[in-house]
């Protein structure tokens, strides 16, 4: 039996010589750091802070007036936000995921229209998941063409941030089985965002400009799935960062050999997870530059490996807060159990154990990763 390793890039691409690109990436990360600090200190309206920061436009391509930042910058940005407020990081993830599908499949008029809205501060929420459907490409929400317009019926679950978004991006299936993505104004008649994050859709009407191809995301190798999962891994790592920072604040003043060893182990895992995240981002950028099946599979496997390790670290670091910091942190008004709960909440949608099986199947059998939006 031959064991196939997870593919890794042997050479890092040369640093960009585009001074403007480096400046845009640096500005985006600086804005994210400043926002993360405010989040850690407590802000009354995190979404308003996100909108005011301009971070909603950093993923818009440069050709349309945006920052056009790289995958690594987006991942680090999300990691910073997750350390301050995982809920806001998930909302930002949903926004960037919707814009990435637009970049990959939208027509020129559609890109002009919706990228401009993102640059103007409007926010998008991707509503893709459905109860009982484990693959995005098997969704049941339906769209029908009626007199040159489209009408949508169905239900979504776990649409993070949809209640506060300006636009809800709904994955839908047409009568002939084609998959589409419809950008729907949140206040549309028939669209109801529920308290549990679900979205009820009852004869919601949209124009043709708001409906873009989605099936192509699964039929051709591209970065939509790998980028989305890369940002999920960044959320997990940000949660772990916050948990370890809380533990460190206590351990600096009160520690013993056993707790130092445990904290050191988690710190080593944190460094390894960060390295995997950086490497995966490089491979996603390589896929952006030169799309192809082989490069796609390498990027998807690298991202999946990062997701598995980051998710496990978030859970371990969140639980370890109690054994490392003890009673001192239990008196914290910010509730130290939030890290463990944040990690479990984020892992619930796509458990790391499912993704670990993909890595195992590849290592043992050379099986390529599936292509259905989660890889």
Automatic annotation (TrEMBL):
InterPro entries membership: Acyl-CoA_Oxase/DH_mid-dom_sf, AcylCo_DH-like_C, AcylCoA_DH/ox_N, AcylCoA_DH/ox_N_sf, AcylCoA_DH/oxidase_NM_dom_sf
Pfam families to which the protein is assigned, alphabetical: Acyl-CoA_dh_N
SUPFAM superfamilies: Acyl-CoA dehydrogenase C-terminal domain-like, Acyl-CoA dehydrogenase NM domain-like
Domain Acyl-CoA dehydrogenase/oxidase N-terminal: 41-122
Domain of life: Bacteria
Region (Disordered), start-end ranges: 1-25, 337-356
Any one GO molecular-function label of the UniProt entry: flavin adenine dinucleotide binding
Positions with biased composition (Basic and acidic residues): 337-350
Ranges in a coiled coil: none
Protein name in UniProt: SfnB family sulfur acquisition oxidoreductase
Classification lineage: Bacteria, Pseudomonadati, Pseudomonadota, Betaproteobacteria, Neisseriales
């Amino acid at each position: 039996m031959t064991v196939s390793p997870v593919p890794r890039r042997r050479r890092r691409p040369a640093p960009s010589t585009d001074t403007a690109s480096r400046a845009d990436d640096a500005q985006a990360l600086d804005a994210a750091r400043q926002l993360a600090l405010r989040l850690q200190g407590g802000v009354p309206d995190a979404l308003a802070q996100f909108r005011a920061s301009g971070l909603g436009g950093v993923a818009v391509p440069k050709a349309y007036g945006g920052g056009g930042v790289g995958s690594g910058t987006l991942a680090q940005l999300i990691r910073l936000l997750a350390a301050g407020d995982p809920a806001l990081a998930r909302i930002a993830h949903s926004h960037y995921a919707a814009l990435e599908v637009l970049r990959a499949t939208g027509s020129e008029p559609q890109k002009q229209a919706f990228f401009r809205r993102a640059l103007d501060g409007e926010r998008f929420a991707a509503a893709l998941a459905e109860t009982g459907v484990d693959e995005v490409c098997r969704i049941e929400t339906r769209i029908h063409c009626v007199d040159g317009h489209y009408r949508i019926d169905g239900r979504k679950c776990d649409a993070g941030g949809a209640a506060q978004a300006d636009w809800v991006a709904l994955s839908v299936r047409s009568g002939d089985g084609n998959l589409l993505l419809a950008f729907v104004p949140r206040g549309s008649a028939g669209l109801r965002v529920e308290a549990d994050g679900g979205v009820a859709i009852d004869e919601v009407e949209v124009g043709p400009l708001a409906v873009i191809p989605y099936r192509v995301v699964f039929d051709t190798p591209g970065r939509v799935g790998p980028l989305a999962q890369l940002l999920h891994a960044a959320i997990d790592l940000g949660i772990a960062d916050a948990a370890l920072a809380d533990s460190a604040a206590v351990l600096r003043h009160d520690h013993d050999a056993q707790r130092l060893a445990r904290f050191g182990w988690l710190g080593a895992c944190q460094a390894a997870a960060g390295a995997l995240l950086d490497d995966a981002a490089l491979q996603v950028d390589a896929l952006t530059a030169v799309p192809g099946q082989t490069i796609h599979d390498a990027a998807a496997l690298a991202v999946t490996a990062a997701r598995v390790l980051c998710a496990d670290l978030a859970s371990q670091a969140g639980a370890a807060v109690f054994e490392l910091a003890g009673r001192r942190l239990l008196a914290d008004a910010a509730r130290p159990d939030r890290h463990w709960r944040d990690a479990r909440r984020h892992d619930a949608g796509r458990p790391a154990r499912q993704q670990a099986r993909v890595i195992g199947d590849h290592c043992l059998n050379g099986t390529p990763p599936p292509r259905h939006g989660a890889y």
